Amino acid sequence: MRFDDTVFYSPHMFFEFDDFDVRERFFTIEEKVQKLKHTLKTKPPEFNHRFTDMCTRAYVFHDSALDGQVITGEDIHVAFTAQLRPMTFKNRIMQEIKNHRRLFHRMCSPELNVRSEDRVYQSNTIKYDDVVKLHHELYDNVGKREQGQFRRIIPLHGTYFHDLAEPSQIKSKLQDLCRQTEHPEFRAQHPINQAILFHRQFMQIFPFAEGSGKIGRLFMNSFLKQGGYDSVIIHSSERQRYYEALRDGQESLRDFLLDNMESALESQLKYVTESA
Hints:
mainly alpha, Fic-like fold, 11 helices, 2 strands, 59% helix, globular
């Protein structure tokens, strides 16, 4: 199948079979999302502000751990509240946390949490230049980072288990992946499917030596937010299963994400309901 006579639609950018069990899980998650939204509307603005801040801190903390970066709750507090001084090693970490938080708010803000009224869901597209720009912004004023530069080797690390693209193929594969987000068949898929398909392909490309995971998960959450869902926080305790799901395939990754979304919503509902 061709699109605009130039873009071929990759067979990896859709799920060949969506069974009824998966669709039922979509509906269950949707119901819990709506219940959480309704409950939050009954709370005062100060509570909603604290709740949002708590979720943002949790996201940055656990997302950093997934990429092997060790930070503490105190680091998060300082980075979110303090004015940073000249770039010591510690302050470079703090600056990256601040940048991460800013990008999270911009890409996953509550304003995006609105489901399209169209009969066929239409997501935003992702541009190649946007990916490179995001890497620049993640490491803005951090120092000693190759901003926007693709990795030149296949890294030997114990974090991710799946195979990575050869450095010579990164640019073309990333350009192709971004073009796939323009295709009508991709844009018409369920937002959870879109999030999974884009994220897994992006992580297989793994364009940057540092920050690929953070950027990939930001884009994953942007698809979810555009579809009306809350951002997903993958807890550091779940990272082993996350790495295995990335290796095992898109169905495994979707099962992992659905489990994570359901458990997170249940915890959030419990917290919001029981809070005075």
